[in-house]
Amino acid sequence: MKKVKKYYIICKNGERRYRDKIYKIGKMAVIIDGKSLAKKTRENLKIECEKLKDKGIIPKLAVIMVGDDPASKVYVRNKSKACDEIGVKYEEYILKDSITQKELIDLIHKLNEDKTVNGILLQSPIPNHLDIDEAFREISSEKDVDGFNPVNIGKLLLNQDTFVSCTPYGIMKMFEEYNIDLEGKNLVIIGRSNIVGKPLMACCLNNHATVTVCHSRTKGLKEKTKNADILIAAIGKSKFVTADMVKEGAVVIDVGINRGEDKKLTGDVDFEEVKKKASYITPVPGGVGPMTIAMLMNNVIKATINQNK
Ligand code: NAD
């Protein structure tokens, strides 16, 4: 076996992370461990929460869910567990499918006015007869811990302090933790949704990447992805990103969560093949998903601190 000099960096968590030189001689990508980073983030937030409690302040998150979408139930349960772990009070409002828009907005207004509630989250999807855009707009921008209110999205675009939506924020934290510098990099996002692709575009641009956002009507997708130093997939199609779409040594972030008929979770990236080519890659599960919830908790603590200044 050819002996190679190993180039590595020491991460904040003390682990050694080998850099792209290694990949050129056929090594596997570094797996970005979202699960441990999320755990570490939650531990730090627990300390912040205790400091607030010492001042007599108990952060509270109110979660609204309409209907009984099974995937939403799982997400909501995970959020509730994270609140318990950190010491955030959790209040759940489960509304019937038949609720009217007015009833939904009235509840949001009530929670906006409730001084004991610091963060409000409306779990999507909601039934089609309801207007989710109006609902997000009505959540007070100071309690909008998901970062979906147009005021907060505008602030993000302007690179001002705001609540960054949790999935893009989690990805930024991963880049930071693994010393992945975005400056000047060709960064391609596949997916332009309001909750992932678009806010992610703003975050990456704010961190000086040259960003290309692709979507279902993009022509010549592969040419674009092959040029990406950093490739982020947020599509919702299992194993959509194959190795031939990825540049050698690229950083690959997989946002997708797809449940197969066998109930197994897969991402939007063909992990087994792409990891042979990438320098860094996130797994599914255990990558972006846990970070999303950790950043939600971060936003709840931030909202509480801001409201008690
Ligand atoms: P979405 O359906 O709103 O958007 C999907 C995007 O993919 C669209 O912009 C669409 O144009 C694009 N797309 C679809 N087919 C394409 C194609 N053939 N070529 C190029 N682009 C194509 O989905 P979303 O809400 O952004 O979620 C995307 C995925 O991420 C889903 O699997 C979702 O479950 C997952 N997700 C994960 C987290 C997490 O915490 N890990 C959070 C949010 C969403």
A few lines on this structure:
The chain has 309 residues and is of the alpha/beta class. It has 11 helices and 13 strands.
Rounded to the nearest angstrom, the radius of gyration is 20 Å
In DSSP terms (H or I, runs of 4 or more residues), the helix count works out at 11
Strand segment tally: 13
Order of helices and strands: EEHEHEHEHEHHHEHEHEEEEHEH
> How many domains make up the coordinates?
2
Q: Low-confidence runs (pLDDT<50, min 5 residues)?
A: 1-5, 20-25
Strand order of the main beta sheet, please? Answer: 3-13-10-9-7-8
**For this structure, what is the CATH homologous superfamily of the largest domain?**
NAD(P)-binding Rossmann-like Domain
Q: What's the rounded overall pLDDT mean?
A: 93
End-to-end distance, in Å? Answer: 61 Å
Helix-strand category: alpha/beta
Q: How large a portion of the residues is in β-strands, by DSSP E?
A: 15-25%
Q: Which percent range fits the helix content?
A: 25-40%
* Ligand identities: nicotinamide-adenine-dinucleotide
In the CATH hierarchy, the third-tier topology of the largest domain is known as Rossmann fold
Largest sheet data: 6 strands, parallel
| CATH level-1 class of the largest domain | Alpha Beta
The CATH architecture of the largest domain can be given as: 3-Layer(aba) Sandwich
- Overall 3D geometry? globular
